[in-house]
């Protein structure tokens, strides 16, 4: 079915400039973290200071974007100690994730970075390792120019409430379901 091209301008006229926004990429489909990295690229292109804080994944599990990010002058903080099912000591994992949150909180409050990505932060929040209300409070009270991007499945309703843009990546198919293992260059 074809449709006639639109002839009237659909854009609204009352848009205003915001000093910063809060963006959430959630859902079960692939693309949450990669879309966040796309925003990192755009920010770097505008000469913004950028910080990426990765929860869950540890410093020794280097994703490809960390390599490129560091080349681009992005500050990279990889806390956590890997996936919870690999953890030998969940109390220790909880502690590491709380420490990572402290590093993230301080960066948001300092206002040096114009973009702060909190990658996979929804997991430690949902497991009760990081206080949801503290995260929400820190984001609400952030310096006006600090943009925050959150990624991870099952984002808490409280964070949706305070965000400006929330996208749910919908799983249609994933290679993993066909028994294909994660691919360097595509998945990390
Ligand atoms: P990506 O980093 O590729 O954008 P993501 O951030 O949306 O993925 P995560 O849950 O953080 O999703 O993904 C962690 C790893 O699992 C990545 O290697 C990703 O490609 C892969 N993955 C993403 N979605 C799925 C899925 N629905 N089933 C299996 N593996 C997935
Ligand atoms: Mg991810």
Distance between the termini: 39 Å
Structural class: alpha/beta
Percent strand equals: 15-25%
Helix fraction bin: 25-40%
- Tell me which ligands are bound: adenosine-5'-triphosphate, magnesium ion
Shape label: globular
State the major sheet: 6 strands, parallel
Figure out the total of helices. Answer: 6
Q: Radius of gyration over alpha carbons?
A: 18 Å
Number of beta-strand segments: 6
Strand order of the largest sheet: 3-2-4-5-1-6
What's the SSE pattern?
Answer: EHEHEHEHHEHE
Mean pLDDT: 92
Which residues form runs of ≥5 with pLDDT under 50? none
Short description, anyone?
By secondary structure, the protein is α/β, with parallel strands linked by helices. Helix content is about 35%, strand content about 15%. The model has no long low-confidence stretch (mean pLDDT about 90).
Kindly describe this structure.
By secondary structure, the chain is an alpha/beta fold. The chain has helices at 32-45, 64-71, 90-110, 122-126, 132-140, 157-162, and strands at 22-27, 50-54, 75-78, 115-119, 147-151, 165-169. It is built from six helices and six strands; from the N terminus they run βαβαβαβααβαβ. Helix 2 links the parallel strand 2 (50-54) and strand 3 (75-78). It is globular. The protein starts with 21 loop residues before the first strand and ends in a 19-residue tail after the last strand. The mean pLDDT is 92. Bound molecules: adenosine-5'-triphosphate and magnesium ion. Magnesium ion binds at residues 32-33, 120, 151.
